[in-house]
Amino acid sequence: MKTIYYPEKNNWDTLCIRPEIDKTNLEEAVKDIIDRVRSEKDKAIRYFSDKFDRVIPCNLKVSQNEIMESIGLVPEELKKAINTARTNIENFHSSQLITEPVIETTEGVKCWRKNVPIEKVGLYIPGGSAPLFSTVLMLGIPAKLAGCKEIILCTPPGKDGKVSPLILYTAQLIGLTEIFKVGGTQAIAAMAYGTESIPKVYKIFGPGNQYVTKAKELVQRDGISIDMPAGPSEVLIIADESANPEFVAADLLSQAEHGPDSQVIMLTDNQALIEKVKKEIEKQIELLPRKEIALKALDNSLQILLTSLDECVRFSNIYAPEHLIINSSYAPLLSGKIINAGSVFLGNFSCESAGDYATGTNHTLPTNGFAKSYSGVSTDSFLKKISFQEVNQEGIKNLGPTIELLAEAESLNGHKNAVSLRLKNLRDV
Amino acid sequence: MKTIYYPEKNNWDTLCIRPEIDKTNLEEAVKDIIDRVRSEKDKAIRYFSDKFDRVIPCNLKVSQNEIMESIGLVPEELKKAINTARTNIENFHSSQLITEPVIETTEGVKCWRKNVPIEKVGLYIPGGSAPLFSTVLMLGIPAKLAGCKEIILCTPPGKDGKVSPLILYTAQLIGLTEIFKVGGTQAIAAMAYGTESIPKVYKIFGPGNQYVTKAKELVQRDGISIDMPAGPSEVLIIADESANPEFVAADLLSQAEHGPDSQVIMLTDNQALIEKVKKEIEKQIELLPRKEIALKALDNSLQILLTSLDECVRFSNIYAPEHLIINSSYAPLLSGKIINAGSVFLGNFSCESAGDYATGTNHTLPTNGFAKSYSGVSTDSFLKKISFQEVNQEGIKNLGPTIELLAEAESLNGHKNAVSLRLKNLRDV
Question: In chain B, what residues touch A292 (CB-CB under 8 Å)?
Fold first, then answer.
């Protein structure tokens, strides 16, 4: 970790730029895969599964048998833990389902919005070193709460052609049964355009590597909606002398172990804490199975000393972190000043991993500074709000003359006429 | 308008495809302009304003004087009408600002979301044949209600180098004063990357022609957020024998006059209505100043006879119209079955132009079938919802063991360790 003392304010923007990722030829490579899946469908899926994942599943769809088998393969203790997380996520995400009032804006003119689920959604769960069943909960639960009719899940199979029982168990627990063994760009293309086995959806959710991210960006150009643009995961911790350096180090490391391109930032107004945390990191990192990954991520990472906690908050708002931990006894006060962040963790005992798994908040969050304009995934992400209006005879009498004037001023006489004819009709009656 | 009687169900998808627009070379042309604005900033803006709008404004920013002058140039009657629309839009859009509850998901674990305005937003108001001051209300009011700090507005000046007083009057009325004389692709590029005169924003809103739409798509790849993808405006009307054919014709024409690429669709279960509406269109179109535009739009348009109102709703859900008028005495009943639409108008007296201007709902809506996954612009569009969590000692004791198990099952031992250290700390105390 690089340490920076009192950086000049006009350098803050530069310090907030994320480490660059080499994307040479990325778009071209991804576009080729998408085009081929679009035209050759399942055949292309099998080709790319063989090429990239070294496996050609007999059936792309996970069978009911495979799903049932998974139930026996998950230890009871873990089942209980998954269920606790599920309950918290359900409780928090169902609180987001709010019915808005009907507003009578003018006598006889009623307006309202109605939550309507997106009919068909696709969830992507990456493969890789570990089965991310927690992401199944984070995407599947709000999709179910929203009431989406068709929810499909794509995830790459292991070399044995099977999907992890943890993913299957978690999926069936929350009622997802349309599961397909396909990963990477080919999974995104399949959900965007449909194949013989995999149905087309209207919106695609879920994390992934830079290929998946680029694929989501490309299919978006064809009108397929996506949850949000993505980049490597990151945490920013604001800590002061009240913070336990052991905890701060552990939180930095828990983010650093995500991937070599992760970035972790520590801001403080307390110079002594920088050294204490550094020592703790050196100690704790030795015990991590993913030490090598964490070390690489720390290479991209910063400890920054600033003059005050207020400065820390200002810096954090420029950085717009995916995860923000405020490890300070002033956390409640400081949290009111946060304007750009994905998810915020307040105080010494609110570690990021709590939110990653089980507090109830969502862990699919805007990275790469996108927190300046995007929210994390929530039940809202699986809904549209359709607006309705009902104008009765009284309403058109009251509001009609206003509309006529406005339409005429915009030279839209057809718009005016639609009102004038109705007003005339009411006068003639 | 083409008339189709009882189309086969397997043809419905094809009938719902929007008329194709020639986009040859569009991306390249737009990309060139964006790149040039990015590197040459104001100089490029002036160059393209001269090239496309045949005008080089002395100052890109509208002066306080110009704004003040506009107030004297708008007739009092029109001012009143604008104010009525403003009040309705404010009332409806402020009802969307809902504070969500704090949820204690586990004893000692509190989660909540907070509405935080997007700090910097840019509104684009197109030029063309008429000053679209109504769009200033539709974008500016929710931006103000959300509490966005920096709201800028870009709109192309006329050949006299001035912005319409109607736009300036409306903007100042709702508190917008950062107004820039720039249109088209160059306006979108300026807001996305910033120039000497025009500040960079985080999210760009507003309608425009295919150049503006493509520019918004392209800057989105650099992480600038946009309101939604766009296409030509459209209406679908479901009408039965209870509908007044005069009104149906007027509503179809009010959409057709928008642009030659607009599409209007009428669905009915009543064959006689098709002829009646056709005759009314022929009569009413003669009186429209924008007759030629409307005629071209009608060339793309359809009247379709189906066997029942339920079939009409099913077809409409496949089409996913921007505007849906249900002109039937069964409108309230049918409205419950609508799953894909931008804004819905119920009954004989709810004309689209009412919602375009003054009912209070927003008129910036998803076109081109995007209503399957997008909502129209609302106060939400100018906000992020940041999630917060506060886990106290009690909370980590209750939830910690669950998190440890879940993190371990995902092979993320650093995540586990952040919890274990805290639990150990509490045991040691």
Answer: none
The pLDDT value given to residue A149: 97
Which of A234, A280, A311, A322 does the annotation list as catalytic?
Answer: A322
- Chain B residues whose CB is inside 8 A of the A356 CB are 407, 415
Gap between the Cα atoms of A243 and B68, Å rounded = 54
CB contact under 8 A, B389 and A359: yes
Q: Are B85 and B197 within one domain?
A: yes
User: Would the CB atoms of A406 and B134 count as touching at under 8 Å?
Assistant: yes
| pLDDT on residue B223 | 87
Cβ-contact B21, B210 below 8 angstroms? yes
The CATH number linked to A184 is: 3.40.50.1980
Closest residue, chain A, to B397 (C-alpha): A349
pLDDT digits (tens, 9 = 90+) for A231-290: 899 999 999 999 999 999 999 999 999 999 999 999 999 999 999 999 999 999 999 999
Please check whether residues B151 and B48 belong to one and the same domain.
yes
CATH number at residue A397: 1.20.5.1300
Q: Which one of B125, B217, B370, B388 makes the best mutation probe of the A interface by having the most chain A beta carbons within 10 Å?
A: B388
Instruction: Quote the mean pLDDT of chain B.
Output: 96
Residue B322 among the catalytic residues: yes
Q: What is the mean pLDDT of residues B122-128?
A: 91
Closest to B91 (Cα-Cα) out of B364, B360, B378: B360
Q: What is the dihedral of CA B321, B324, B326, B332, to 10 degrees?
A: 100
**CA separation, residue A252 to residues A255, B39, B414 (Å):** 5, 38, 9
Q: Is there a single domain that holds both residue A371 and residue A416?
A: no
The closest alpha carbon to A367, from A228, A213, A230, A236, belongs to A230
Q: Within a domain: residue A382?
A: no
Instruction: List the catalytic residue out of B234, B280, B311, B322.
Output: B322
Contact B203 A373 (CB under 8 A): yes
- Residues A69 and A133 placed together within one structural domain of the fold: yes
Torsion of CA B118, B139, B96, B368, to 10 degrees: -100
How many Å lie between the alpha carbon of A297 and the closest alpha carbon of chain B? 13
Give the residue with greater pLDDT, A198 vs B158. A198
Can you read off the two tokens belonging to residue B397?
């004791």
Q: Name the domain count of chain B.
A: 3
**pLDDT digits over A77-87, tens only?**
999 999 999 99
| Residue % of chain B over a pLDDT of 90 | 92
ipTM of the complex: 0.96
Say yes or no to pLDDT of A21 above 80: no
Of B81, B341, B418, the CB nearest to A402: B81
CA distance B371 to B341: 5
Confidence class of residue A22 from pLDDT cuts 50, 70 and 90?
confident
Range of the domain at A314: 231-375
pLDDT at res. A128: 72
Q: How far is A374 from chain B (nearest CA, A)?
A: 6
Contacts of A113 in chain B (CB under 8 A): 96, 378
Residues from chain A that touch B335, judged by Cβ atoms under 8 A, are 388
Residue A174 within a domain: yes
CB spacing of B370 vs A223 below 8 angstroms: yes
Q: What is the pLDDT of residues A333-376, one digit of tens each?
A: 999 999 999 999 999 999 999 999 999 999 999 999 999 999 99
> Per the domain annotation, does B11 fall within a domain?
no
Chain length of chain B: 429
The answer to whether residues B203 and B118 belong to one domain is yes
Crossing angle of the two packed helices B76-94 and B133-146, in degrees rounded to 10: 40
Residue A159's pLDDT band (cuts 50, 70, 90): confident
Pair (A291, A406) in one structural domain: no
pLDDT in tens, A379-406: 999 999 999 999 999 999 999 999 999 9
Residue A24: CB atoms within 10 A of its CB come to 7
Asked if the Cβ–Cβ distance from B380 to A385 is below 8 Å, we say yes
User: Is residue B133 located within the same domain as residue B266?
Assistant: no
Inspect the interface and report whether the beta carbons of A387 and B344 lie closer than 8 Å.
yes
- Residue B166 in any domain: the answer is yes
- Position A130 scores a pLDDT of 79
- Who among B166, B393, B417 is closest to A409 (CB)? B166
Average pLDDT over chain A, rounded to an integer? 96
Same domain, yes or no: A194 and A277 = no
Nearest chain B alpha carbon to A80: B402
